[in-house]
Amino acid sequence: MNKFDGISVFVQVNDSGSYSAAGRVLGVSASAIGKAIVRLEERLGVRLFHRNNRSIGLTPEGAVFLAHCQNILAELAVAESDLSTAQEQPSGKLRVSAPVASEGWTCVFLQFMAKFPQIELEVSYTNRLVDLVEEGFDVVLRIGPLQDSRLLTRRLGTFSLRLVASPGYLEQRGTPETIGDLLSHDCLRNRNVSSHRIDNWPLGPEHAHVNAGLANRLVADHYAVLLSATLNGFGIGCLPSFWADEHIASGALRHLLADQTANQRAVSAVWPGARGFPVRLAAFVDFMARNLPPILR
């Protein structure tokens, strides 16, 4: 027997309480078990068990050695499990809750489906703060600070909110040069579907009075509506970078007060730790961590 065999025999003898019982578990004779223990003791230079005709018990040295052996075998089991997991093809149903986001997010989901054809993906789009345990989601993509410390999380990337307006609107109403100038403009605002409050714009705490005094030309709980209204010149919108940037690049929108409204928002994957970390979930989280950040930026 090799060194690992000797260790596993030693642990099994302790667990079973006798050579014969350990032999039945391992499928060898009591004599073979006894010889393996003797060889292990000779190699270590210590006695591991007190033995008599009726019972067997650990020596003090055996008790110390047992703790180390149990740790070794536990680490070996984890390593074997990890290798098995790595080789296993992800499959099965995966329920995902994601915020109502731009077409780029959908493209990432479709890329994931193409790479993992054996996973049945179900995506629920909502800006509501879902209860993933009560509602049966395997993982939630969540924007902003995380509230429940009992959940496991992984940050996937960051994005920014941008104040934007169409060239036509700015020609008609003028371009704001300071945050205070926003008070004289029509504003297109987002209502948070969980808190039911209108989201503040990233103007900084010293400009809280400006947020409170903005003239709301339109309030909606869907950024697609706010984007359309902004593109059509109805006012200044505050849009996530993944909604706004392609239109800024094309010239359809202009980024306003960029140096005065610098901000960053996190996107995280959140899942319940009590369910473990199945292969399909690990594949999804890793894929999002690699492929979502370019969309967010």
From TrEMBL:
For whether the record's keyword set contains Transcription regulation, the answer is yes
Q: How is this protein named in the record?
A: DNA-binding transcriptional LysR family regulator
Q: Which Pfam families match?
A: HTH_1, LysR_substrate
Q: Which residues form the HTH lysR-type domain?
A: 1-59
Q: Which family does it belong to?
A: Belongs to the LysR transcriptional regulatory family.
Q: Which GO terms describe its molecular function?
A: DNA binding
Q: Which UniProt keywords apply?
A: DNA-binding, Transcription, Transcription regulation
Q: Which organism is it from?
A: Ancylobacter amanitiformis
